Each structure stands twice: as structure tokens, then as C-alpha cells.
Amino acid sequence: MRPIAILVVLLAAGAARAEGYADLYGGTAYSPRSDMVFVIGSPGGPADHTFHNVEWDRSSVYGARAGWWLDALPWYGIGLDVFRFNANVPMQTVDTTIFGATFPATLQKIDVSVLAVALDLVRLRYPFFADAEYPHGRLQPYLTAGPAFFRVTMTNKGNGELTTDSATDTVLGYKVGGGVSLRLTKQFGLFGEFRYTHFHAEPALRGTITGAGVPVKFDLDTRHLLAGASFAF
User: Fold this and answer.
1) Where do runs of H (alpha helix) occur along 68-209?
2) Interval 124-163: pLDDT, tens
């Protein structure tokens, strides 16, 4: 199901809502080292280049989300979350395996940008310091989880065997997270959150000499540390 269709479903569910919310946030994103495979064909058969333990640059992350806490189950909500971050590859020397032989090689700079649309199908909260004015609590620890669509754009910056044309891939992954929201007024609050995202992508760059596609396979497991403002309606 496409993200727009799912958004329509979420909007329809708003008929049963008790409390709507809209959040704006920013923070930092960090992806641990992982392997990157250049899928290269040759007359003698596949000659994949596997770069081991590739380092990814830290990045800023920013986004917005909106949804509802349901009337019948005030501790349960749904939402839509849209955010952007980068995971650029700096120039580095790493162990590289080609035709079964492993040796040090230099991987030049590659830019990777990510646009994500996540569906918070599970969103749970617990009310602390609840009273008549704040029936759902002034302090609300929460958990969130659901599938996410990632639009990955890769641009080679320095590897001579590849052109500098950008390549894209849209893949399905997931997002899980947890945080704490503090209500300053009935309509406004602040929150902090830690989240984890995962996806596998294979954007196809283009070879300089042959013009053939060179898929680049990698897993990206990213930790996000966020802070933002929340609006209730």
C-alpha cells in the first residue's frame, strides 16, 4: 500500500480521535560501520567489490509527525512521521575483498541522503501526574513502532570508475523509538526521543567506461537522538 493511501486511512481514523497531536523536531543521527558491496560484472564473471566496516558520517535529522490518541484507548495512538537525514561516506581506507582476496583499498567520498515516511501503527503512552486538568498526565513516557518507507539518494563524489550521476532506491524498513513528553500547557509540550531505523538499499550508480549500472548494496542501522515541540488539538 502506498504511503498516500495509508495516510487516507489514518485521516479516516481521526473520526474516533480523542486528542490530536502535531510534532516538530530535530536532532542528530549516527550509523555504525557496515559493509558496502559494489556489484560489478566482468567478462570473467561477477567481480563484486566488498568494502568492509565502512564508516558513515554523523548527520543532522529533522522532521514532523501528526496523529491521534484514540478515544476508546487513550493510551494508544497512531500517526504519520516524515523525516530526513544523511549518511555520507567520507574518504577512507578499508579492507576490500575482490575475487576472494582481501587487501586495503581507498573508498572515495559518496553522499547518501534519506527521506523517510514512517507509519506509527503502535504508539503507546503512560500518564504520570494526571489530574483533572491533565487527565492524560503532565509527563508521558511513550513507545512507538511501525514500518517506514525510505527514499535513498546516492551520489558518487570521488570514485573514478563511477559517474557522478545520482541513483535512487525506495525501500521498506522499520522504525522503533521511545521518549518522554512534558506538557507545559494543555496545548503545548516538549519531548525528547531516541529512535532506531533500519533498511537495506541497492541504488544503482553508473560505470564511467561502460555506462552499465553498478548496484551498491548496504544495510543502514541508524540511531537518532531527537528533541522537539508537541502541539495538542
Assistant:
1) none
2) 999 999 898 899 899 999 999 999 999 999 999 999 889 9
